Amino acid sequence: MRFWATCLSALALGRAAFAVSNNLTTDVTWDPFSLSILGQRIFLHSGEFHPWRLPSRSLWKDIMQKAAAGGLNGVSLYAHLGLMNPAPGVLDFDGLRSMEDAILEAQAAGLWVTARIGPYVNGETTGGGLPGWMMSLNATLRTNDATYTQAWTPYWTAMAKILAKHQITAGGPVILVQVENEFDNVRTTPATYMVLLEQSLRSNGVVVPTTHNNKGLRDITYAAGTGAVDIWGIDSYPGNGCASSWSAVVTNYNDFKNTSGNPTLPLYSPEFVGGWFDPWGSTGNYAACRAKIGPEFERVFYEALWAQNAKMINFYMYYGGTNWGGLAAPVVYTSYDYGAAIPENRVIGDKFNELKLLGLFIRSARDFRQTSFAPEVTTLTSSADVTTAEMRNAQTGATFYLLRHTTSQSTATVSTTLKITTKDGAFTIPQTSGSQITLLGHDSRAIVADYQFGATRVLYSTAAVLLGTTIDGVDWLVVHGYPQADAGYEVVFAGVTGRLHDDDSQYYCESPTSSPPFGALLMHDSICQAGLLANFRITAGGRALLSVGSVRLLALDTTVARTFWAPVLPASSGTFKQFAEVGSNATIIVAGPALVRTAAITNKVLALTGDTNRTTTLQVYGGSNLFSSVTWNGAQVSGGLDTIGAWSATLDGPSSAALSFVPPTLAAWKFKDSLPEISTTYNDSRWVTASKTSTFLTMPAYPRDTSALLGEQDYGFFTGNVLFRGHFTSTGKETGVFLGINGGQAFAASAWLNGVYLGSTTSFNSTDSDVKNVTLSFPSGALRSGDNVVTVLKDNMGLNEWSGPSGIKQARGIVGFQVQGGANSTWKIQGNFGGNTNFPDKVRGSLNEGGLFAERAGWHLPGFDDSTWESRTPVQGLTKPGVGFFRTTFDLSVPSGHDVAMSFVFRGGGATRVQLYVNGWQMGKYVANLGPQTVFPVHEGILDYHGKNTVAVSLWAVGNSTTDFAISDLQLKVDAVLRGGVIVQVANPVWSARDVF
Ligand code: GAL
């Protein structure tokens, strides 16, 4: 079946002339222009999503549907080895760790998958995805070291089998598999490690092309058989991140690709700036970052990347999500929102919608896929302040002029004319005397010439094209522009005679009026005479629909265009029937709703699904003969043609009950002390005894008063809070203790002697050290005769990402310890219950809990009976340095049929470190004196919107001042209310007794 489909589509669309395959499959091929899938050339337009950063799994569907609705045709998925392989011999691909489920959701939404499976991924996650147990190996990580090879093989083999099952040759969406990440970091030649990884993929059945994400413009190309993958690409984060100032676009990717020996490959950007992450202690915020790397930035930088001839682009991140539990590396706090197109709370806005405009254009601009690189020049523009690339498709003649400021950061408003060369001759456009193309501040414009869609050729359009498509035999061109930009936009259809008119067959060219005759468009009579079909001004908020022959021109204010959607209409059959282009070329133009997720026409019923954020006018453009009724989220809606000929109906916004929904105030808190370990009577006999005298962790040469080493990874503790108890026998002469403590940047530690508080230390932010040295004096009277115990509580902010082979293996724990003036100490260690091998919570996984007593006992879980606990709130807090645990429960009854985004909002506190547990999931670390995060989005699924919820916080007063002892507020707030959403299932396993010690 598929063989024929392949041949037919290749015949119909012209198989890429010099397509190269990896000799294992021809389902995915490439040439210097682009990828081809099943013989069809595609522009891979993809977004990065880490499913494991969205633990409410039902919502993976939401992200995938948004990506497809946003005009993307692919997703790129990092897998997390550390989560999936928490201990040697333990592989867990279930639940939130399921790559398979993520792939199936991508497939359902019609998205191709690039699987980026490590073993090392970076990604600002703990250990860059490598688990703590690998750091204790006698091995150099990320090399062909035999011990390391043995360590990754079980995960890699199992993952390869999953991918083989879901690759395109088996009817799945996986088209590319990335081997390693930024291997430049560990470059060796030959790269036998890369060869081993690739061979293992092949021997486990993966046949699709392998890829690699090169760290920027650094040459890591290898000869065949020495580490080469099929397609490598360049990652790049230009523009100056979240900082408000812009830096320039990069203009030498294409040169680099060609000169570094790979002119036969398409230009691939496996990671292109979709936002940036924010560190502990920053003064930034993701909302500001989303505005900076926002609509204007997307247009300028993404079109500049097109000008470099990139035809395979993945935006990192498209949805960032949450570093819940111990997922973060120390470089980032709980939120991994990233300022991405889809915010952490999943409520989309202008950034998403601008990228949608670019995505829908690229999806429909088929001829762009085979355009050649042409250097950006100022010779075609009348203004030297405007630069353009002239990218021509040699086969079809279609040409794309990508205009931007010559100084790409410029905020000046500049106007220019443009010399274009078309099949019908050369023109300087706009042709209307005195008219110009205007870039407004940070702006860029893609201008098409000889742009073919359906049976129609657009000679040129100075307005940006949203899409050109054929609906029920009628060719539709949708264009948009800013009203403040060009005084007159021009769209010229080639070979079309007649005059544009509206649905009443009124010809408007003949009688120019001072007011726009039909909404947005003002026709210039002189242009009509000259044979131009449309010259129009776009009015604010305007939309206008014109016809000439069988062509429709819909012209929109760009801000109106952002409310437009073009969902794929799935074909009636075919394995990939829901995939744009390869499976279906059919689309329908829908405007109005905050989101249009899916569309399908069966038995003359147009079924649309999506979300509304207010009472909304739904408009469907074209295809009105294809359907006789319309449903929205399954319910019939009645409507009819509006004044400009769109089928229109009114959709309900959120119900008033949903809009007025207020979550309950968090009250009725219960409290219990969570630091029994500081007591002299605490029995630590079942704790792990520190007995290692050698280590393969990176352990600095600090003073230590015994040979035992206290690197916590060596004892199976990789995440969260870890407790240490050091015993020594006093001679009465001991004066204090020296401690060198490593918890990663932004960690803290507190110490007690025999229950008496000694002091604390904090690494303040991402530029501070990850190890802190302190000498704490013993207060008089604290020493006892006989056994004395120093208890140290420290947290682990995550394992380091790659910072050289020894940097990633940096020991967390107590790296130096010496009782001043005293004898040797012996140490016991305790971290999360069961460590990395026997952790009890298989659903939430190995990184959810740390080693606080409360966590070990499971007090954070729903169903634990706290009825005997004292009533006390986190605002009342503690009375001294230490750790308290607070619990409360409340019912939620959120009106159904809505997607209600909620966040927990903290206020106040000093040196106060709080972990937020929601129905057993550790959803945030609030560090009051570091910040900056105070708002913690928690999704439905983690919260039960129709039942009882348990919220718990651990509150660690790291200092001795009363401001450290409490926070001033914690509440649950509504961020946004939409009618719609996807169905969310809740799976929050409850407490069962643990043999805690
Ligand atoms: C890239 C890396 C990603 C991520 C990104 C920054 O270089 O490949 O994993 O760390 O930087 O967010």
From TrEMBL:
Taxonomic source organism: Exidia glandulosa HHB12029
Entry similarity comment: Belongs to the glycosyl hydrolase 35 family.
Q: Does the keyword Ribonucleoprotein apply?
A: no
Q: Which InterPro entries match?
A: Betagal_dom2, Betagal_dom2_sf, BetaGal_dom3, BetaGal_dom3_sf, BetaGal_jelly_roll_dom, Galactose-bd-like_sf, GH, Gly_Hdrlase_35_cat
Catalysed reaction, written as an equation = Hydrolysis of terminal non-reducing beta-D-galactose residues in beta-D-galactosides
**Which class of enzymes does this protein belong to?**
hydrolase
Q: Name one GO molecular function term.
A: beta-galactosidase activity
- Which SUPFAM superfamilies does the record associate with it? (Trans)glycosidases, Beta-galactosidase LacA, domain 3, Galactose-binding domain-like, Glycosyl hydrolase domain
The protein's name is Beta-galactosidase
Q: What is its EC number?
A: 3.2.1.23
